[in-house]
Write a sequence for this structure.
């Protein structure tokens, strides 16, 4: 599997209609979210790599899930990214560096990661040095702010004079936003998305599956 490392512990990959993730510290198990194209249900299950056994953690009918997805996805975005207002009109002459699929949050933002969080303190000397180095990477695609506004989704970096910002565009948000921080704490993100009670129950079921 082509694993994408999200943090020192969490990896994730996409295989067809499945999202697979696991803990780098425990290679015996991985967890799969199946989109259930044939069954009509989303499901989360755990697989024991050594025995090949599966354990279903939770199932969710498509009809019920699709009815809340439009409100759930913005909640997911806001759980991971702390967003702030961005004035597109005032930055019409800005050139946007696109952070494409080869951009690794854990690797490329490593100078700014503290306690499972990337804080983009635009006045901080560490950030200014990081931003200056990123601006010099000429191999990255650059577009105008007008073209960035036309994209459905994307994260970009812009530098104007002495100021630098990371910005986000999503089809699930009403406009372009400035990114102030990125939460890399998986437990914190999932608790905020699902609610602590639901998330803790899912973790309990996964732990029970692993202990069998």
């Amino acid at each position: 599997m082509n694993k994408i490392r999200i943090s020192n512990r969490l990896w994730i990959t996409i295989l067809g209609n499945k999202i697979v993730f696991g803990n780098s510290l425990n290679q015996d198990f991985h967890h799969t979210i199946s989109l259930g194209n044939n069954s009509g249900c989303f499901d989360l299950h755990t697989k024991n790599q050594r025995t090949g056994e599966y354990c279903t953690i939770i199932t969710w009918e498509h009809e019920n899930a699709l009815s809340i997805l439009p409100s759930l996805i913005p909640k997911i975005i806001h759980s991971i990214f702390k967003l702030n207002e961005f004035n597109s009109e005032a930055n019409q002459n800005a050139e946007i560096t696109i952070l494409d699929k080869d951009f690794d949050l854990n690797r490329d933002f490593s100078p700014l990661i503290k306690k499972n969080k990337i804080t983009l303190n635009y006045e901080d000397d560490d950030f200014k040095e990081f931003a200056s180095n990123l601006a010099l990477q000429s191999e990255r695609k650059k577009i105008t702010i007008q073209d960035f506004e036309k994209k459905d989704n994307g994260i970009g970096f812009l530098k104007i004079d002495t100021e630098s910002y990371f910005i986000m565009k999503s089809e699930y948000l009403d406009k372009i936003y400035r990114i102030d921080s990125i939460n890399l704490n998986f437990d914190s993100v999932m608790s905020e998305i699902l609610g602590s009670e639901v998330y803790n129950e899912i973790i309990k079921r996964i732990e029970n599956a692993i202990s069998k």
Notes: The mean pLDDT is 80. Residues 62-80 form the longest helix (19 residues). DSSP finds six helices and 13 strands in the chain.
